[in-house]
């Protein structure tokens, strides 16, 4: 089955809007018809199996094209619209793209060589003139549906190939554990070029729900207003979204959201101090801690909301349809409370990296995805991330995970965010440096003393940072993730 048919299986004829809100709206029936016309156009112009770039902020333009590309049997390449021209050129050279769909606002800063580029007005013409295709064909669900480019270890973008089966499997699992229904309305601040953002699109389309698009998280008031005005039942964010809402907004914690049923958090570790703070402020809102990777089509584990408070540090257990184990360097499963690499298997695991057989072989072994995350499992099967293999810092020969130190510093009032990293040190090899973002600027030396006092109380001496950098704001990517200094 083509993922397009799966997503619209029960919703193509719904008499309601899929996208609602003042940033644009589109009804289910129109979205279905328009996407089919795009698919028909693409079949006629380029055939199937071609890699087609889509660059746009979240909009009905993006959604219509994304779905049309999937239905056509071509491969969608949704790009980070903040991409540097050098990385764009690298991708263009790699993927043999016959055409580009790009929002007009981006054409001032991005150039696509000699490729034909279609913006919003062109899409309107395609839909106006397009035919409604009637295709009755066998479709291989293992065909690649999309390539999502992420940052590679070499600095060059790395293309994660996801099949139609991958998208359907992960969507089915997420719908099941979040108990999504036609009544759900999701407030979307995550971009659709990011697998977490796309999962919101897929799941709500599948169940016949609705989404509200907000591309301006920096304006906290607009996010809060959208959640209330459009009676959102769900909100999804990465750690920085929750940190900013809890620490920067003066009204968020005191606002009543009568329709908000749940929130989800993924895209990195949100320290327990923030999770517990949210739970205290909104005791009737379910908080889902989730863990995943682009290579897993978005999601691998989740922590049930009733475990918040008891296991706020945990990433929970495997989602439906996924197996997880923790293995040592010999590839054998380790015991309870023993550290090892978290590996996963399921229909959601990527097909591989685009034209990168070596990296694919290192990441997928015997059908298992090797995540690069070091984890432990407790007696009841709950999983905990200790750190990433590449993030472990060695100070004087001692292995240190920065997460533990960051959690202590984040418990100090006036601290919004903290990043601990290793810097070169002649004596120790590496020394610890903490970059601290403050809520209310105060004398740096005073705050530093408070942090050191807290660290001395909770950490052994070699885990206490020797160097500090203080900032007034976080550096964030378009997905909302922290940009770490190198």
UniProtKB/TrEMBL annotation:
Q: Spell out the SUPFAM superfamilies in the cross-references.
A: Acetyl-CoA synthetase-like
AMP-dependent synthetase/ligase domain ranges (all copies) = 15-354
| AMP-binding enzyme C-terminal domain ranges (all copies) | 404-481
One GO MF term, please?
A: CoA-ligase activity
Q: Which PANTHER family does this chain map to? A: LONG-CHAIN-FATTY-ACID--COA LIGASE (PTHR24096), MALONATE--COA LIGASE ACSF3, MITOCHONDRIAL (PTHR24096:SF267)
- Spell out the protein name for this chain: AMP-binding protein
């Amino acid at each position: 089955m083509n993922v397009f048919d799966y997503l619209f299986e029960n919703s193509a004829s719904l008499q309601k809007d899929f996208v609602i809100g003042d940033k644009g709206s589109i009804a289910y029936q129109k979205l279905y018809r328009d996407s089919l016309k795009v698919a028909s156009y693409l079949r006629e112009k380029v055939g199937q199996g071609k890699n087609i770039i889509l660059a746009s902020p979240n909009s009905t333009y993006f959604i219509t094209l994304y779905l049309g590309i999937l239905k056509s049997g071509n491969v969608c390449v949704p790009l980070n619209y903040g991409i540097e021209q050098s990385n764009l050129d690298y991708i263009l050279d790699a993927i043999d793209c016959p055409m580009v769909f790009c929002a007009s606002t981006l054409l001032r800063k991005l150039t696509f060589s000699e490729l034909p580029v279609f913006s919003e007005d062109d899409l309107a013409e395609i839909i106006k003139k397009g035919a409604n295709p009637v295709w009755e064909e066998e479709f291989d669900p293992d065909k690649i549906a999309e390539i999502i480019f992420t940052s590679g270890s070499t600095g060059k973008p790395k293309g994660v190939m996801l099949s139609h089966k991958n998208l359907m499997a992960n969507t089915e699992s997420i719908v099941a554990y979040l108990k999504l229904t036609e009544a759900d309305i999701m407030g979307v601040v995550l971009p659709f070029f990011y697998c977490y953002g796309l999962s919101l699109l897929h799941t709500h389309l599948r169940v016949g729900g609705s989404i509200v698009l907000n591309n301006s998280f920096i304006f906290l008031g607009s996010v809060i207003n959208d959640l209330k005005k459009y009676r959102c039942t769900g909100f999804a964010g990465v750690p920085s979204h929750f940190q900013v809402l809890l620490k920067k907004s003066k009204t968020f914690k005191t606002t009543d959201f009568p329709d908000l049923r749940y929130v989800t958090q993924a895209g990195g570790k949100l320290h327990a101090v923030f999770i517990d703070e949210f739970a205290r402020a909104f005791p009737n809102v379910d908080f889902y801690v989730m863990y995943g990777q682009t290579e897993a089509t978005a999601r691998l584990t989740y922590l049930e909301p009733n475990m918040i408070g008891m296991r706020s540090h945990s990433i929970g257990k495997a989602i439906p349809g996924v197996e997880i184990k923790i293995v040592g360097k010999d590839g054998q499963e380790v015991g309870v409370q023993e550290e090892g690499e978290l590996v996963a298997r399921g229909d959601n695991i990527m097909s591989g990296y685009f034209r990168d057989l070596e990296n694919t072989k290192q990441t997928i072994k015997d059908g298992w995805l090797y995540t690069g995350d070091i984890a432990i499992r407790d007696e009841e099967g709950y999983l905990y991330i200790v750190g990433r293999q590449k993030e472990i810092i060695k100070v004087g020969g001692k292995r240190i995970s920065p997460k533990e130190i960051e959690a202590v510093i984040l418990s100090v009032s006036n601290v919004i965010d903290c990043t601990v990293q290793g810097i070169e040190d002649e004596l120790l090899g590496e020394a610890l440096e903490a970059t601290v973002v403050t809520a209310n600027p105060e004398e740096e030396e005073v705050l530093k003393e408070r942090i050191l006092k807290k660290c001395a109380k909770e950490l052994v001496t070699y885990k206490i940072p020797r160097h500090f950098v203080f900032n007034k704001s976080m550096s964030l990517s378009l997905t909302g993730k922290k940009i770490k200094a190198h």
